[in-house]
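Ex. 9. Protein: Propionate 3-nitronate monooxygenase.
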Amino acid sequence: MRTRLLDRLGTTLPVLAAPMAGGSGTPELVVAAARAGGLGFLAGGYRTAEELAAQIESVRDTGAAFGVNLFAPPPVPVDPSAYRAYADALAPEAERRGTALPDGPPVEDDDRWQEKTELLLARPVPVVSFTFGLPGADLVEALRGAGTTVLQSVTSPEEALRAADRGVDGLVVQAAAAGGHSATLTPERPPADVPLPELVDAVRRAVPLPLVAAGGVAGARDVAAALRAGAEAVSVGTLLLRTHESGASAPHRDALVDPAFTETVPTTAFTGRPARALRNRFTDRYGPSAPLGYPALHHLTAPLRKAATRTGDTSMIHLWAGRGHRRARVEPAADTLRRLAADVPGR
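Predicted structure tokens for Propionate 3-nitronate monooxygenase:
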């Protein structure tokens, strides 16, 4: 099966490795996806420009096809009084784990946006995708002029139309079942819980751009259904978290298949932005009171989450997971990606 998007990306496998910020996504995972015939994305989120540059060059040196994903501004400002109340509520948890939460006002940064975009213009990569916000049309034009294919993550036909106006080459259509952060452009209004094929079809009818489908994929049938609905490729993240090349922590890997975790839930408790995770004590206790505010809450809770990860306390870790998490296997990433393409006609 060949499509205009796959031809442009230089891939033969219509299953891609999604960007996973925070350490789960690794250069090794990106290279493994490329060697399987697909494409992987380095996650630029939470990294300095220098760290991202080093990862880019390490993948580029292998000759693998790859992409880079960035968190696009604007951030979501937090209400200072709500932030302080939330910090006060979390303080005893941090004290019990021998750590401290950040003191002072909320940290409202843009994840070094300018430095990273300047890097990608100075040292162009094959593909760049954006999430959380829309890049300016001038940046999209500059990246395309440098030979980069530009993709934008969206969660609705309305967002797809806004992205198309910026001149992007294609869209990553993310369903609400996706693990980790929602790509929504309106975090105060979480996306409707629409099945992935239905969402792909709606976006396809709204804009004439190539589509990559993402969110809640559990197996080859899900991939085939998304492609029938009009996607040209499918991006998966959760199903790669237990693979050999994943950088996910041991507690996170194990929790994905632990019968103690019975469901996933969308929550703002960890970062102040809607994200889907395994339901645990943290989501239950702090989700209802967590204010919107990204990246302020991300920075606030980071020491607590790191301390919990060090001790394997899965009751307090951000266990990002899509609805297909039970199907994640311990195996080479290439095996996962190829198996997911098994029901694609012509393969």
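Check your answer against this statement. The chain has a mean pLDDT of 96.
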